Amino acid sequence: MNKIQLLYVENVITRKKRVLQQELSFFMLVENLGYDKDCDVLWSGEDGEWHTLRATYHSNPDHDKEYWRAHIAVKSTADRTLPGNIKFALRYRTQGTEHWDNKHGLNYSSQADSGIKVVTSRPILNIGFESSLKDGQKYVPITVSVNQSVHAKSVTIHWTTDNWKHTHKTPCQFKRSFWDEKFRSNARNPNQYGSQIWKGLLKIDDAFRLQYTISCECPDQVLWDNNYGKNYSLSHKPLKVMILNLHCYQEDNQDTKFSQIAKAINDLDVDIVCFQEVAELWKFGQNH
Known about the structure:
Strand order of the largest sheet: 5-6-2-1-10
Shape: globular
Radius of gyration: 24 Å
CATH superfamily of the largest domain: Carbohydrate binding type-21 domain
Order of helices and strands: EEEEEEEEEEEEEEEHEEEEEHE
Number of domains: 3
Number of helices: 2
Helix content: under 10%
Structural class: mainly beta
């Protein structure tokens, strides 16, 4: 694979609550070449002005692959028009080197309010999925893009909440009004890029972890999206526990050290903190 590869772009103009805005979303696959990395989208609208949109880490389908995504919403105002049709390229910087996915120098394009454009060769693709479960979440929506050229008869989600000891099957539904119902968008389903959107909803109750894969029954074959053989997986975030062995009694600037500890607890969003104070009271802590 390329070091960075566009999987799909979503371009919709929403009209919810009488607010007109254009939402752009980019989803990409990145080869994990190192811990320190930056990914961004360089894009321009019909006004020809180029912008840089920072992408953020999403999840990793494998130890050497990562999903990244970028999103921006642009509101229409008296002084600002919507971007309209866009062109763009992806940039990946790591270890002092730049890698690009710019459609071999031609740049990618996406028509205004066209819905989703899948550029990968995969005819069935899980889109818009999250990387974790939210507190109290009991339902998980699944959205699948299917290329209309495969003439899909049905789309099914195969899922489990106990590591495949028990499995469930949930059928997806195809609704031509998908984009209108979700965004009040004029995008079609299927759209001009041949993408059909199917929707499913999984009832997971109080499960801690969900794993799933997607099948698409066609007239002469069954196609799968199993996340590069790893299946899709999302779970609640585990508790973060910090255990500290302190020596503050014997040190100067104790308040400064405690302030540093408090900052680390806050920055790391720690759930449980365990302190153990280690001090030598014998002979005033002189380590004799």
